[in-house]
Amino acid sequence: MKFPSGTAQDLLKLIREHPLAWLVSAQGGHFQAIPLPLLAETDASGGLSSLFGHCSRANPQVEHLRANPRALALFSGPHGYMSPSLVSNPVWVPTWNYAVAAIEVDVDFVPDETLESVVRLSDTMEEGLPDPWTIERAGPRVEPMLGRIIAFRAQVRSTWASFKMGQDETLTALSELISGTGDDALAGWMTRMNAQRLPQEALASE
Fold first, then answer.
1. Where along the chain do its domains lie?
2. Per-residue pLDDT tens over the stretch 24-67
3. pTM of the full structure
4. Please, which residues have CB within 8 angstroms of residue 89's CB and are 6 or more apart in sequence?
5. Domain at 8-168: CATH code
6. How far is CA 32 from CA 39, 79, 154, in A?
């Protein structure tokens, strides 16, 4: 079964809830990869248009991307093993559910936006905390830090996503997996991606 790529909003939700991505690039037959938290930026229609972040200036990938800006950002959301012990059907076999995305981008370094990248990322991550941190607290450490990192904006060229969340299961098996998985985030995505099939009372908790 080919699992759905989801909607534009599904993709944004995945990135916003799980912003750490592998940024992968290649040059001369050699791959470079680094894990970085990235912020989703949208266009006028609300779709994903770019990814915004920063990295160390000392990272060798910076020079690779200056020479060849094409890269792939890989996101992984909730995932987990689905055990037959959760399902009443005695012949049900195990599987793995997941939400993943691969986004082809062109990376453009924007050093003038480095401070903004730190502020936006920290503000996003601190949102909802009882005493959210702000960059002003770093005081004299800010300027030296900004000299060691550089911001970039990765313009989206294409997107691919797959949300394997029990769409091929019977309603009984799906309900048993959702209630038994013990992973609230994964259960939430399973509920979201099967909204048209599940009873309304199940959707109320998503």
1. 8-168
2. 999 888 899 999 999 999 999 999 999 999 999 999 999 999 99
3. 0.92
4. 170, 172, 173
5. 2.30.110.10
6. 21, 25, 16
